[in-house]
Write a structure and sequence with these properties.
The protein has 170 residues and is mainly alpha-helical. The protein has two domains: 76 residues, no CATH class; 93 residues. The chain is 73% helix and 0% strand.
């Protein structure tokens, strides 16, 4: 099944009672296809971007499974794909309302990119959060970064400021 076929199935099911199950099924299929490639295929990357950028898709419970599955294949992403995914997550995060998607997106940023880059993203995103779900995702990401072995006092101070800012804005 092609990435475009999967996208069509997701669109068709996005407003149905079985959407979550359908999304999880196709996310598993997506992941199995990824295992066949050393490099992340461009058509599957485009599918991922569509799921993460279109409200009718990312608002469905189960949409986060595509990003979760991508984490396991993150080494197959090209530098250009990694950069594009990073910018999309940072830009779209304020639109995410589902708790699981917020947690998976924030986790992906905090574990999938160097700590200083992830912290910069969290700082950018923290001023735009509107929901408890978004705040919780960013707080979890900051907790992950607190465990990074970084003795740099400026990094730790920035992390603490971001944490305090999110707490105050709740």
């Amino acid at each position: 099944m092609s990435a475009n076929d999967i996208l069509l199935q997701l669109e068709a099911s996005s407003s149905t009672p079985v959407a979550r199950r359908t999304f999880q099924h196709y996310a598993d299929l997506f992941f199995r296809h990824l295992l066949e490639y050393a490099d992340f295929p461009e058509d599957y990357f485009s599918l991922l971007l569509e799921v993460l950028s279109r409200p009718n898709l990312f608002s469905v419970e189960g949409a986060e499974t595509f990003l979760y599955q991508t984490y396991a294949s993150r080494d197959a992403l090209s530098p250009k794909q990694r950069e594009k995914l990073f910018e999309l997550l940072v830009d779209q995060y304020p639109s995410y309302t589902k708790s699981q998607l917020c947690l998976v997106a924030a986790d992906f940023l905090s574990r999938g990119y160097p700590p200083a880059v992830a912290l910069g993203a969290i700082e950018r995103m923290s001023s735009k959060v509107k929901t408890t779900e978004q705040s919780n995702g960013l707080l979890m990401a900051l907790d992950i970064l607190s465990k990074a072995d970084i003795a740099d006092s400026e990094f730790q101070m920035r992390r603490k400021r971001a944490h305090d800012g999110i707490i105050l804005n709740r």
